[in-house]
């Protein structure tokens, strides 16, 4: 009698657990297929490479996920205690070798395959003639500096930094190269043109992050880090800090404006004109 | 070599009689294990309490909180949110995930499972608990100082963590207490690791060869080696950070910094990346310190309740060892976006992908252990099965983050939060629950209630998936982590519905954890009395009374005749053959 009750309990629990795993797997797969919450379209060429690598990884991990969860569901259902005797075996070297070799090829191969997108983003220098913009993070704002019509950067002196008096990055007034430097709280770039950003910070670590560019880079105190991109779709995109930088981290936001070349030129002229006394 | 007299055989140790020597400053590994367990139990509820407040703030940032919920009442500020987040992470990682699986269960069970009367260094063992306790007190003191706890996260990246109050509230006294508290914890972890390694290598009973050790013991041994090699590095990093904060050094602070128009003049020449290297050289092995004991426990319990040997015992040991070994060579994958050379990112990436291989071996072998079994579904087994499911789910998302190209998008988003909570948080906690339901009878002499246990399992299993699966999609939508609210960035607005869902799921799941506490304390007093071996299990802890006597084996050293997982042996008298059973009594011997 006792024995029978235990078996009935075992069957009910086994069925519920198996069903739970099947439903959970189904919902998860559905959410990844339905794409209700998903990334915005990429606006760069290497963004497309990254998206493709994401898809490959999603398919491979998705297959492993479904097989493992359903395998677990099947095992708990099929081998629940029904009074049978367990089969005695301690392993199978051949199978161990198969799945060791299989996952090694699959996972490391996937990693090697993904390096093309990474190389595109990081191994190569910016194309010659790229528009250079210096990106400076500070608690809790971004500043973007352009070299201006003379194409020369002015020197920076940290002790001159004063957001309140209009010199947020500390341009040295003695340096003629800095006279026409344009500093803007939003980033304007011409579309279809290589842009090189020189990422730095005045205080703590921040992260320059634009979803649509598929680009993310820490701004590390003491370093100037070069990144490059070529945005092909005009529009306004949000720059949201992605490295904890203090109490205002979640509102350290700016905008990237990708505009046609003429509009960019017009904007730059306005900025230069606004600086004339 | 080790001064210990368990090898003498035949002479009994007498327990101390006074309350203080018996329960407070005890040198008995069992009492110390229980002390660690209660420290972790207190800490996990503290950590969960902080996460409740965080979840409430995320969906109702302007809510006026009642004073019973939020000291002082009123609205929570974003710096208060970040302080809660920092303390949530620090308490959970150090005081729960490092403490319960290893120091708690390892302390209680390991000596008995290898047939020893105690740990190799009982006084050191007591010391490591009390140093851990001191660490919790110092860390907790951050709640009560001016400015409150630090806001720099459990990773405490300088210069934010190095510059003092000028960097934000909580970065003054709170951050100093954090650095000191974590440093003290490192010392405790090092003492504990030494003890575990020595005990396992030197105090095994006759016949307990390495290849007969339960996989739990293997897991605790490998974890102790990881602790020994990694906590020293974190200790050094904490000392350097403390010197930067208090002694004017500049290990992590470069020159020329300006905070809110104020130049930092007394520091120059340091490197913030140095901290990141040191921190993650500890931080990545730490992930395995949290999860390896869970893997050992899951393997052990799956075999016990499938009534079958572990599938591929040697492969399991090899897999855990290689996870530990590779775990020291992948710290750079936390730094793909910090300005490392892109070529080194390539190397770190491939090594990280390679860790997927032993992880997959473990998963296959768990399924192989279940295959052909006679599965008994008690609460401990349900949590072990849940562990396998969570380990698969949480592990696979690591394959995305291990690739720097995909990390260009996923880095520091909620996708990362989902990944590490599932694999190192929830899976490890499921390991703790598996162990709790399994060993409670041995530790306290009574059974936990199975009905409450099963209800606890179902709500928790469904609940943790409901909390953490949606976070993957927040990450896919580009939601950065460590944001106190979602009002500052336009594209986060549409994601609020997901945040609501997560908060509701979290409130229900956390409420269900009180079922465990009720079950725990009710069963402690009124649970069904446990026999010596209620699960018909094979390992040595089930050969002694529940709870075991003071010196475990009554002065007799047990002798071990076979491996740890002799379940369902053909022609044996029972469907299990205990390790200590002499071959003549076991039917056909193995």
What layout of secondary structure does this protein have?
The complex is a heterodimer of chains A (277) and B (590).
Chain A: H1 2-34, H2 45-78, H3 93-113, H4 115-123, E1 131-138, E2 141-146, E3 182-184, E4 187-190, E5 194-201, E6 206-210, E7 215-219, E8 225-230, E9 235-240, E10 253-259, H5 261-275
Chain B: H1 19-24, H2 29-59, H3 78-97, H4 99-113, H5 122-141, H6 173-202, H7 215-246, E1 258-259, E2 262-263, H8 272-306, H9 313-326, H10 342-370, H11 379-396, H12 398-401, H13 404-410, H14 414-444, H15 450-476, H16 496-526
Antiparallel strand pairs in B: 1-2
Helix pairs in contact in B: 2-3, 2-4, 2-5, 2-16, 3-4, 4-6, 4-7, 4-14, 5-6, 6-7, 7-8, 7-9, 8-10, 8-11, 8-14, 9-10, 10-11, 11-14, 11-15, 14-15, 15-16
What is the H/E string of chain A?
Answer: HHHHEEEEEEEEEEH
Low-confidence stretches of chain B: 1-10
Class per helix and strand makeup of chain A: alpha+beta
CATH superfamily of the largest domain in chain A: Cupredoxins -  blue copper proteins
Largest interface: A-B, 106 and 118 residues
Please explain how this structure is put together.
The complex is a heterodimer of chains A (277) and B (590). With 277 residues, chain A is α+β, with helices and mostly antiparallel strands. Chain A has five helices and ten strands. In chain A, a hairpin with a 2-residue loop joins strand 1 and strand 2. The radius of gyration of chain A is 28 Å and the shape is elongated. With 590 residues, chain B is mainly alpha-helical. Chain B folds into three domains: 232 residues, Cytochrome C Oxidase, Chain A, CATH 1.20.210.10; 185 residues, Up-down Bundle (Cytochrome C Oxidase, Chain A), CATH 1.20.210.10; 62 residues, no CATH class. Chain B has 16 helices and two strands. In chain B, strands 1-2 form a two-stranded antiparallel ribbon. In chain B, a hairpin with a 2-residue loop joins strand 1 and strand 2. In chain B, helix 2 packs parallel to helix 5, helix 10 packs antiparallel against helix 11 and helix 14 packs antiparallel against helix 15. The N terminus of chain B is likely disordered. Chains A and B meet through helix 1, helix 2, helix 3, helix 4 and strand 7 of A and helix 3, strand 1, helix 8, helix 9 and helix 10 of B.
């Amino acid at each position: 009698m006792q024995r029978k009750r235990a078996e009935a309990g075992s069957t009910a629990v086994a069925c519920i657990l198996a069903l739970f795993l099947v439903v959970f797997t189904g919902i998860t797969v559905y959410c990844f297929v339905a794409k209700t919450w998903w990334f915005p379209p990429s606006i760069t060429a290497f963004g497309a490479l990254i998206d493709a690598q994401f898809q490959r990884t999603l398919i491979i991990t998705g297959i492993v996920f479904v097989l493992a969860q359903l395998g677990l569901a099947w095992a708990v259902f099929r081998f629940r205690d029904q009074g049978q005797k367990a089969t005695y075996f301690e392993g199978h070297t051949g199978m161990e070798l198969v799945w060791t070799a299989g996952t090694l090829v699959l996972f490391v191969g996937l990693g090697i395959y993904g390096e093309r997108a990474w190389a595109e983003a990081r191994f190569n220098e910016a194309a010659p003639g790229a528009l250079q913009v210096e990106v400076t993070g500070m608690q809790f704002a971004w500043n973007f500096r352009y070299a201006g019509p003379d194409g020369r950067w002015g020197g920076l002196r940290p002790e001159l930094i004063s957001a309140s008096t209009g010199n947020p990055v500390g341009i040295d007034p003695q340096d003629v190269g800095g006279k026409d430097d344009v500093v803007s709280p939003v980033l304007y770039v011409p579309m279809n043109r290589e842009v090189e950003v020189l990422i730095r910070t005045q205080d703590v670590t921040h992260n320059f992050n634009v979803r649509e560019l598929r680009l993310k880079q820490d701004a590390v105190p003491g370093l100037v880090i070069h990144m490059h991109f070529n945005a092909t779709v005009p529009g306004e995109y949000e720059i949201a800090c992605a490295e904890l930088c203090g109490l205002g981290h979640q509102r350290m936001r700016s905008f990237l404006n990708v505009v046609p070349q003429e509009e960019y030129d017009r904007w730059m002229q306005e900025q230069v004109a606004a600086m004339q006394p | 070599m080790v001064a210990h007299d368990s090898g003498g055989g035949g002479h009994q140790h007498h327990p101390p009689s006074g309350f203080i020597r018996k329960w407070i400053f005890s040198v008995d590994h069992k009492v110390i294990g229980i002390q660690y367990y209660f420290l972790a139990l207190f800490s996990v509820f503290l950590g969960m309490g902080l996460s409740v407040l965080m979840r409430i703030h995320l969906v109702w940032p302007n809510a006026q909180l009642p004073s019973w919920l939020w000291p002082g009442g009123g609205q929570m500020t974003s710096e208060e949110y970040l302080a809660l987040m920092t303390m949530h992470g620090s308490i959970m990682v150090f005081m729960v995930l490092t403490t319960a699986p290893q120091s708690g269960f390892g302390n209680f069970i390991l000596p008995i499972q290898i047939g020893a009367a105690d740990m190799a260094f009982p006084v050191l063992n007591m010391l490591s608990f009390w140093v851990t306790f001191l660490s919790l007190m110092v860390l907790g003191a951050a709640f009560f100082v001016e400015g409150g706890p630090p806001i720099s996260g459990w990773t405490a990246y300088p210069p934010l963590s190095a510059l003092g109050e000028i960097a934000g509230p909580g970065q003054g006294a709170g951050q100093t207490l954090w650095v000191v508290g974590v440093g003290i914890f490192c010392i405790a972890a090092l003492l504990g690791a030494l003890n575990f390694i020595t005990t396992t290598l030197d105090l095994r009973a006759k016949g307990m060869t390495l290849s007969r050790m339960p996989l739990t013991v293997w897991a605790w041994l490998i974890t102790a080696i990881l602790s020994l090699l990694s906590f020293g590095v974190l200790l050094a990093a904490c000392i350097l950070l403390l010197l930067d904060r208090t002694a004017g050094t500049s290990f992590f602070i470069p020159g020329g910094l300006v905070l809110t128009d104020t130049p930092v003049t007394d520091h120059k020449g340091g490197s913030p990346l140095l901290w990141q290297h040191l921190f993650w050289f500890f931080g990545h092995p730490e992930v395995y310190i949290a999860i390896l004991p869970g893997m050992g426990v899951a393997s052990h319990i799956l075999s016990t309740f499938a009534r079958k040997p572990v599938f591929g015992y040697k492969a399991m040991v090899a897999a855990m060892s290689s996870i530990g070994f590779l775990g020291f060579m992948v710290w750079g994958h936390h730094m793909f976006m910090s300005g490392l050379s892109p070529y080194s990112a390539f190397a770190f990436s491939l090594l990280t992908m390679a860790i997927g291989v032993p992880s997959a071996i473990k998963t296959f072998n768990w399924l192989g252990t279940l295959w052909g079994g006679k599965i008994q579904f008690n609460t401990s087994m349900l949590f072990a099965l849940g562990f396998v499911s969570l380990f698969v789910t949480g592990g696979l998302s690591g394959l995305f983050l291990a690739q720097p190209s995909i990390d260009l998008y996923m880095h520091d988003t909620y996708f990362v939060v989902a990944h590490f909570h599932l694999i190192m948080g929830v899976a490890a906690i499921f390991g703790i629950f598996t162990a709790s339901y399994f060993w409670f009878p041995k530790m306290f002499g009574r059974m936990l209630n199975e009905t409450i246990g099963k209800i606890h399992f179902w709500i928790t299993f469904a609940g943790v998936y409901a909390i953490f699966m949606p976070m993957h999609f927040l990450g896919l939508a580009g939601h950065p982590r460590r944001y106190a609210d979602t009002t500052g960035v336009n594209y986060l607005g549409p994601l609020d519905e997901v945040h609501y869902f997560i908060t509701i799921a979290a409130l229900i799941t956390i409420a269900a954890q009180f079922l465990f506490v009720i079950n725990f304390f009710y069963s402690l007093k009124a649970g069904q009395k446990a026999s010596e071996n209620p699960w018909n299990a094979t390992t040595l802890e089930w050969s002694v009374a529940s709870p075991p006597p003071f010196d475990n084996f009554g002065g007799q050293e047990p002798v071990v005749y076979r491996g740890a997982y002799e379940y369902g042996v053909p022609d044996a008298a029972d469907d299990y053959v205990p390790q200590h059973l002499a071959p003549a009594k076991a039917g056909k011997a193995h």
